[in-house]
Design brief:
alpha+beta; 134 residues; 2,3-Dihydroxybiphenyl 1,2-Dioxygenase, domain 1; binds cobalt (II) ion
């Protein structure tokens, strides 16, 4: 079921500073900054040859990454995103096995205009997992 690693997401308090670090120190290619109001974050993607890094900064009131940044004020790895061919089939299989899907359980449209779901970190080795339909 699990496919490619789509991205690793890093939550940061200052997305411009983080993007500059990746651009200037590491020579990375940086996407434009994009507000994702449905997800309560602003994103910048760093394109790597084999995957992407998603920088996340809180957007608006009650961003889902507020608590994470309270615990990790310098930022930190927030989630990893795996591709799946069929997100509904993946969800149904995982929930049948007892895994918890966050939110309503229905996929939302993610940063790449594809359906995404998040899985509870307690069910996946302490790591928040995002599934994205490839
Ligand atoms: Co993500």
């Amino acid at each position: 079921m699990i496919g490619r690693l789509n991205h690793v997401a890093i939550a940061v308090p200052d997305i411009e500073a983080a993007a500059n670090t990746y651009r200037n120190s590491l020579g990375a290619t940086i996407s434009a900054k994009e507000a994702q109001p449905d997800h309560g974050v602003t994103t910048i993607f760093i394109e790597l040859p084999n995957t992407k890094i998603e920088l996340l900064e809180p957007l608006g009131q009650d961003s889902p990454i507020d608590k994470f940044l309270e615990r990790n004020p310098n930022g930190g790895i927030h989630h990893i995103c795996y591709e799946v061919d069929d997100i509904i089939a993946a969800r149904d299989k995982l929930t049948q096995e007892g895994a918890r899907v966050l939110g309503t359980g229905e996929p939302k449209i993610g940063a790449h205009n594809k359906p995404v779901l998040f899985l509870h970190p307690k069910d996946f080795c302490g790591t928040l997992v995002e599934l994205e339909q490839a």
